[in-house]
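**Backbone shape codes:**
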Amino acid sequence: MPRSNFSDETQAKAEREAARAEAPRLTPEAVDTADGPRTDLDWVPMSMVPLFATAAFEDLSDDQRRRYNHYYALQLSEEFLWLEHHAIVPPLEALLQRGDLPPPVRTLIETFVRDERSHSAAIERLLERARPDLYARRHDVLFRPPWRVRYLTAAMARMPTFLGEWSLFVGTLEEQTITIARLYRDAGDDVDPLFSHVHALHAQDEARHCQYDALIADGLVSNEDTLATGVGGAFLAALFRAYYDVEWGFAGPIRRLVIDFPELQPRSRELLAVAAQARHATYGERLLDPATAPITVRNAERFPVLGRAIRRLSRPLKYRNLFDGFGRRR
């Protein structure tokens, strides 16, 4: 198994970041001390929901649109939970088990894990506050990634140094929390203050974590040999392809909506089809847009393997690599 290779410069940066690290802003206490959520407001900016601006969406009643919005907000929260439990903390904890980790980097990763555990506890509290009937026993009601996503993220924890490109994938995901927080801020009074507050606090923490991810990538990716870079690059491209596949991630809120409003049952297939079609955007353009993803753009310039992986998203599926076809429906 390859060893990590953190340069003296990277270790010095990690030591500085760890020294100025603050306590996480998103905590269960931050949720407990806020009011809400308000059921008469949207819980996520309406522009974010897949059905928005479609004829099928306009045909829904006001109550149905509001309920759909709430379910999508809950799914987004579940997604953050899933990522923290399966894509972020496990490879970090696997790195902490290694004996070759420099002390400054170890301290930084311990801070990283502490923050993510705080986020998970806060988001669980948010879900329980929002819908205690759904989240009394579990927190994965709506967000169910396909097995190819679960397989690839599990590999990150099994081989955290050989597949060190996972740190670039995580950094890209965490920058998106900042974009989401901006959308909440721009929505202003149209969205629930509690959900908006949680996403704002989350983004503030994740802005620091993006720096942590880049430092970890310095030790795991920068010094790879040709073989490791080739395998890691193929893995990273497959990871982006699987996670940003437009064929999943939209069904849960619609299915719950149909349960709540049985009169929509005859339209369920139509709603699912419209939502799927609406998601066929070019993710690569957004992920490498300097206006919306400046951190990812900088990382792609520094680590070309990241830019190549994201650009593969816009290529036809027939151009697959070794990992791309795992578990994908045909």
Q: What stands out?
A: The chain has a mean pLDDT of 90.
